[in-house]
Predict the structure.
Amino acid sequence: MKSMINFAHRGASAYCPENTMAAFARALELGATGIETDIQRTKDGVLVCIHDESLQRTAGTARLVVDTDYEAICQLDAGSWFDASFAGERIPTLDQLLALAAESELILNLELKNGAVQYPGMEAEVISAVRQAGLADRVVLSSFNHYSLALCKSLDPDIRTGILYMEGLYRPWEYAATLNADALHAYHFAVLPEWVKEAEEAGIVYHPFTVNEEAEMLRLIEAGVAGIITDYPDRLHKLIQSRR
């Protein structure tokens, strides 16, 4: 079978508090070859890895990331909500994740969270950080904000982008071509084998999300997707290894 990217969704988020260095490190231990994470920006301009616009669910305060300085954010406990054994885990910066990736062969899927909250200029900042780390060939930028992805390509035509979407996008590989995008990050039920084939013929690959059941992983492997985003990278790793 073709080499497939095993993207750990927010790190190994089934086993560790999501979007923490513990989750990222555990993903590597469980066989992940890629990490998917979410990028936002603090009030004072630091790029951080966190999914929600609010700090409430994972860090226990109702403040928004965009309204909070990094010095305050890096003091928050981002692990206890998941399990007491993770008390003291912090919200990592993009630079910390890039440093981890630089020491491995990880592929990074950086989701730009610029929908509910807008972060003007974040596209250029993320691309600059990725290039300074020497990882431009191992990064794909994704977003549900497709204007943001178009901007990424205008800033750097060589940076890879992936279009996030749910069900119902008609002939999405043709739409992807209008944005010069490289990948379709589709909800996994919106992926069929014939679509994977047509997309591949158009030079577009599929990285479906978030796939946690082994039967669905197998279906998508057989369909020929280029990568799968999962909370359980160990499950996907075992299936990939068993088919080699």
About this structure: The mean pLDDT is 97.
